[in-house]
Amino acid sequence: MDQTALGDLREQAEGASRQARAPYSNLFVGAALRSASGQIHRGCNVENGALPLGSCAERGAIAAAVLAEGPDFGLVEIAVVAKTADGSIQAVSPCGACRQLIAESGPTARVGFYSANGEWIITTSAELLPYAFVLPES
Fold first, then answer.
1. At what angle do helices 96-105 and 57-69 cross, to 10 degrees?
2. Residues 56, 46: contact at Cβ < 8 Å?
């Protein structure tokens, strides 16, 4: 897979990370996605004192996309960037809840994030969550 791909989304995700509210972890995460319609939507993490109730950047970006495009929104690709308060890039892949939402929003979507060695990784939602939960057809 082309490791230089998602460059525009990576830049958008870095910008979104600067808008994050992370007073507890000091980990500022931004996400930017491209929908099937070609639109770009962004999100950032938002923490609060009831720690489990914070929201992730990926889920924020997907929520923004659904709000803008409606329930038929389709995810094509998403980039996630995390930084510390001093601007250092951190290795952060989507959490389990985000992986599930990414898989449901775009079963073949490309997902980009930084690895622990600073390499920009691009994988697919299926590779990121190979055993995604799927409700049976009604």
1. 30
2. no
Number of C-beta neighbours around residue 57 at 10 A: 29
Positions marked catalytic = 58
Triad 105, 80, 34: Cα angle to 5°: 45
Per-residue pLDDT of the chain (138 residues; tens, 9 = 90+): 444 579 999 999 999 999 999 999 999 999 999 999 999 999 999 999 998 889 999 999 999 999 999 999 999 999 999 999 999 999 999 999 999 999 999 999 999 999 999 999 999 999 999 999 988 886
Rounded to the nearest 10 degrees, how much is the dihedral formed by the CA atoms of 45, 48, 54, 55? -30
Please provide residue 109's backbone torsions phi and psi, each rounded to the nearest 5 degrees: -65, 150
**pTM of the model as a whole:** 0.93
Number of helices (H), then strands (E), belonging to the chain: the values are 4, 6
* Interatomic CA distance for residues 89 and 85, integer angstroms: 10
Identify the H or E element spanning 111.
Answer: strand 110-114
